[in-house]
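Lab notes, practical 5.
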Amino acid sequence: MNIAKRLLIGLLLIGPTAVVAQDADAPAQTFEQVNASVQQKLDASIAELDALRKQVADETIPMSRKLSELESKLSSVRVDFQQTSRLLDSRTLDLSNLRNEIKTRQDESNYLSNLLSEYVRNFESGLHITELQRYSQPLEAAKLAVENSNLSQQDVFKTQTDLINTSLQRLENALGGDRFKGSAVDPGGLVTHGDFILIGPAAMFKAEEGSLVGTAEQRLGSLEPAVVTFADPLTAEAAAKVFADNAGDLPMDPTLGNAHKIEETQDTLLQHIQKGGPVMMPIFALAGAALLVALYKWIALSFQRRASSKRVNALLEAVARNDEPGAVEAAKRIQGPVGKMLRAGVEHLDESRELIEEVMYETVLSTRLKLQRFLPFVAISAACAPLMGLLGTVTGIINTFKLITVFGSGDVKMLSGGISEALITTEFGLIVAIPSLLLHAFLSRKARGIVDQMEKAAVSFINQLSKTPMQPQPVDKAA
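Output from the prediction step:
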């Protein structure tokens, strides 16, 4: 209807225009003629309009039907789209959950793989040295399975779980002790086949041929168990009986082989000195010389007689009485360095006090030099011994660095020689220095005591002489 109305209005608007245009060109017509012409055109337009309406109606119904069908189809498609969208969202959520689940399972699988690998390492490190041969194949298979790209994760887990079953079987066997065959290195360095008995951490070995029996222990740098024989024949016999009868008294080492290792580290004094290297020779030479000098000085000082206080007082009393012959006789009875000094003073009683002091001081000086002779050598020995030990330390460290340059720092046992040399020379340097220092202090104090006694006696004599000057003796006329 809207289209028909628009067409009618258009014709009405076009009609007058056409009439006006026609009137301008044609002769004037009457109103009736124009009205008839217009009416005719109107009827034609209405007829055309009706035809258009009918055409539009004929076209509208199918299009409306088609539109309804399309709208119905659109609704169905929308429903399908919504269902598909919900399904897609659900599938996306499920896929995300599945990915998270897969990631969780992968993490669990990696954790389990790491846990099993760590168990394999711990199992290997927990094995006794005698069991490495026995479990070498399952251990090697479990370690190589992780690195084998041709195996699936399931196969790797199966190989590792087989080792777990083997370890559980090992625990069951260890409850009552386990016996198995293997090989070990005898004390001579030869590989010998025989039987092992393992009870807890203790293991024993008996050779198939011969009477070799002993404890099986690990040696540094070796993957083969080493046999340490029993020192007591009765213990060896008891161990052999256990292998023969699977029963008996089992010899046990509560230290698990540490006692043997500690015993091997014990050196004799000569071996300990030899490890110190060539610097030990001058250290011991210095020690011997210092000891001889100290012994000589101790004997010499011990033979120095000490003056009796009673005899010294007798000399002072004679001087106080102005009795020169009595003083000379009293001085002769005094022994030791003090007596020698006092006799020198008494011989010059008639001289001046200053001269007597000089004579006595000269005796003191000569005695002091005699007493202190060779003592500086002991002090020098006490000072030089640590320096020699330090020299040995330096040479030992130099040898150690030479070995590190050649062999590297991986083998500590190879470097122990230079380190031992460095420490032993320092040790013996201090062993020589400390007693030498003590001996020097003791001998110096002993010599100083003798000199102090001489000085005390000299001061007492000079003081008494100052109080009582000696008078010249009267001449015997009868003589």
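Observations recorded by the TA: Residues 2-102 form one domain. Strands lie at 178-185, 191-199, 202-207, 213-218, 225-229.
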